[in-house]
Amino acid sequence: VKPGITAGALFDHSVPVSESLGYADTDPESPGVKISLVGHGIGVELIEPPFIASGKSVRLEPGMTFAMSSKLCFENESAAEIKSVFLITEKGARWISKVPAEIFLC
Description:
Blueprint: H1 7-20, E1 37-41, E2 48-53, E3 65-74, E4 78-88, E5 93-95
Antiparallel strand pairs: 1-2, 1-3, 3-4, 4-5
């Protein structure tokens, strides 16, 4: 992620990654439906624009803070969502979440 990338381009990058991992059809709200949102801005509100989604033309700029979400849903079993928070800097994105970006059981 670098300043100037559009929210839509970031979403488009996520699609082949999720497909390569076998998680392209894992929307927790609608099992079997492809996810259309993988992140959102964080500011005055916890969830606000820009939305990291298909077709969004908003360009990410230094100083913006946003969350990227990994959602997994296994029909008749469980669902999980991992959010990582990033700050856009002049050189790219800096991960600012305090929790490790890995799957763990509670």
